[in-house]
Design brief:
single chain; 4 helices; 90 residues
């Protein structure tokens, strides 16, 4: 295992996920149901599946597209979505 990649990935995902809509959903579901363990298991299971899909797609895309291009496309999509949200198109 490459610990540098692990720590970099952990740090990036941890910071990116702080106070996002996923946490708000977890807070709301735990408060509404009163079953925090079930909410936690459901959240972790869903995140595992989403992460497996994204890592798989990234690995496949890297075989056909340079990683730098994937990064630029991702950044561009974030900017476009940000503008669309800013101007209330979405």
């Amino acid at each position: 295992m490459d610990w540098r990649v692990f720590v970099a990935t952990f740090g990036a995902v941890f910071c990116a996920e702080l106070a996002d809509k996923t946490q708000l959903v977890g807070i709301g579901m735990a408060a509404k149901t009163g079953k925090p363990v079930s909410v936690w298991l459901g959240s972790v299971s869903a995140y595992i599946i989403v992460t497996v899909i994204s890592v798989f797609l990234g690995a496949v895309m890297a075989k056909f597209i340079k990683p730098e291009l994937i990064r630029y496309i991702g950044a561009s999509l974030f900017i476009i979505i940000g503008f669309l949200m800013l101007f209330k198109v979405i």
